Each structure stands twice: as C-alpha cells, then as structure tokens.
Amino acid sequence: MDARDGRGPRLFDEVRRKLRVHHYSLRTERAYLGWIRRFILANGRRHPRELGGQEVEWFLSRLAVRHKVAASTQNQALSALLFLYREVLGERLPWMEDVVRAKRPARLPVVLSQAEVRSLLACMDGRTGLVAQLLYGTGMRLMEALRLRVKDVDFGRNEITVRDGKGGRDRRTLLPASLVAPLHEEVERARVLHRADLDAGFGAVWLPHALARKYPAAPSEFAWQYVFPAMRRSLDPRDGAERRHHLDDASLSRAIRRGRLRAGIDKPVSAHTLRHSFATHLLEAGYDIRTIQELLGHKDVATTQIYTHVLNRGAGGVLSPLDR
Predict the structure, then answer these.
(1) Given 272, 299, 309, 313, which residue is catalytic?
(2) Among 127, 141, 149, 276, which one carries the catalytic annotation?
(3) Pfam families recorded for this chain (predicted)?
(4) Which of 60-64, 166-170, 248-252, 291-295 shows the lowest per-residue confidence on average (mean pLDDT)?
(5) Is 184 one of the catalytic residues?
(6) Which of 1, 159, 199, 277 is most exposed, with the fewest beta carbons within 10 Å of its own?
(7) Which of 147, 194, 246, 298 does the annotation list as catalytic?
(8) Which of 16, 194, 243, 275 is catalytic?
(9) Does domain 114-309 have CATH number 3.40.50.150?
(10) Catalytic (active site) residue 166
C-alpha cells in the first residue's frame, strides 16, 4: 500500500490497537498483521473496503492451491481477515457468514515412548533442558511454561498455577518433585538478574490486561518476574520500553531438534510432543481422563479423549489373532 494515501499506516495502526484492546498476544498480532498485509498486496494494494467476500475466498483458495498451506494456516488467515472487517472496519456483511473454514484433517498426535522421552531429555541440558523437562512433567504448553511467573510456582504445595492459558482460563498442574531443586536454582538466577536490572534503572516486567495501571508497583516486584528470563534486555515492540522478556521459544525448538538427533529418535518432535506424551503416559499409568483434562486445561473432554487412541495397546486393546 502507498503510505502517501494516508490509509496504509493508519489501517495497520488501528488493527494493532484493536488487537491489543482485545488482549491478543504479540505472536497473534504479528501473524494477523502479516496476513492482512499479504491480502492487500495480493489484491493490487487496494484498500480492504474496496474488497469483499469474493476476494477473500480467492485469497484463501490461492493459499491452499498454489502455496499448499495446511488447513490450520488457512483458517488463521481467515480469522485475521474476519477480525479486520468486523473489529477494525466495522463491517457486518452477509458474505462473512458464508465463508467456510477449511476442515482440519483428524490426525493422531505424535507421542514418544517413556524410553524415548528419557533419551531425549538426557541429550538436553541447561535452561532449555529444564524447560523441556517441565513441559513433559507438567503437560504445559510451550508459551505457558516460558511465560511462567515466579509467584505462580508454589514449592510448598508442589503446584504450578497456569495463568491465562488457552481460552483465557487459569488452571493448576503438578510440580514434579524432581524439578523442585532445579527450579529453585532457576528462580534464584532470575532474582540475581532482577537485582542487576533494578540497579541499572530497569527491572519492570510487562504485565497483561492493564495490570500495571491497577498495581503500579507490581512490574518491578520480583514475584511478577519470569522464571525463565532472557539473558539480555530488549525493546518491547508494544511501547518501546526496555525490558527483560522471557526465554525465546525458538531457542527451545532448536535445542529439542538437536536433542532428537543426538538421541537417534526417528519421529518429528516438538515442544507440543512432550505435552502429548505427558497425557498419554498418564493414561497408561491408569489416571482417569477427567483428571488429565483438568491438568491439560482442555475445555471439552472430547479433546482429551484423542489420547485414548494412541495408547500402546493396539486398536482398542484388541489382541491380534496372529498373536494368539
């Protein structure tokens, strides 16, 4: 878009403002802005008000046919465009209700055996190794672990509170006894960094949902700091303030890949694989599915039931006649 027409920068600024009003994450903000930009460029830099349902469907079809994106990626692009028209441009057009989301194929999650998990974790070390252990030991999602605050680790009760998880829900999960000592050390390391930041005139962490206005002293309190802080301060793209963010998720992804190769595991492994393995291994150990649902933070037990299909007992626990 031509910045001289006065529409391009203003449009993206308004998209950004609306996303933050609705408390979307910075990752989602970047993704939505990227899709809106691609949509505008694909339509000859025309303003979205000049476009409509036909152009949206053409864009989504082009993503699937030419770029062969996954259904989840196509649906994310659609969500970005619907947010643009509904929340930013304020348009409620009939075609919005007729746009069909791509159907995601039903796939079973990749799950590691307990031996494979032990092998993978043995090939990881340092802070990324500790985060990987935490993911497998608690069932947390990647960003839930990286955004963990000091105040939400209860060493006395061996319990972790996950704040503002998927769907905006809080929940509690277990703190593995084997991780108590390593996490204590990580918290103390974070305390040292925080003191150094305060001495340098910094030390205020980012807080969501305008909590910093409600509790002005909270951003500088140690209780609100990340358990896994980044080693360097950086400028926050939301307001330009210099802060210490949490550990970068890309560094963990690289560490998991290196660990998988060292362990000789011939399966695709990601941070989410450890969450899948956590749930499956609890089912194998005989824990009831409702308990696992609560630990994972699933809204619907049907989501948790997918793990019953990956238990290492054959289809439905049936013994093949070949093995009789």
Answers:
(1) 272
(2) 141
(3) Phage_int_SAM_4, Phage_integrase
(4) 166-170
(5) no
(6) 199
(7) 298
(8) 275
(9) no
(10) yes
Does residue 215 have an active-site annotation?
no
Cβ-contact 273, 263 below 8 angstroms: no
Is the separation of the CB atoms in 228 and 148 below 8 Å? yes
The pair of structure tokens assigned to 296 is 């994972």
Structure tokens at 182: 């390593």
Catalytic residue among 20, 166, 171, 172: 166
> Where residue 21 falls among pLDDT bands split at 50, 70, 90?
confident
Both tokens assigned to 98? 């007729």
Q: How far apart are CA 113 and CA 316, in angstroms?
A: 18
**Distance (Å, rounded) from C-alpha 112 to C-alpha 250?**
21
Distance CA 253, CA 207 (A): 25
In the chain, the amino acid numbered 263 is A
Interatomic CA distance for residues 15 and 27, integer angstroms: 14
Domain extent listing, the chain: 3-98, 114-309
Helix (H, G, I), strand (E, B) or coil at 62: helix
The superfamily (CATH) of domain 3-98 is Tyrosine recombinase, N-terminal domain (1.10.150.130)
Coil/strand/helix, residue 160? strand
> What ranges in the chain are assigned the alpha helix state H?
8-21, 26-42, 53-65, 71-83, 94-98, 114-122, 126-138, 142-146, 180-199, 211-214, 249-263, 271-284, 289-296, 301-304
pLDDT attached to residue 178: 95
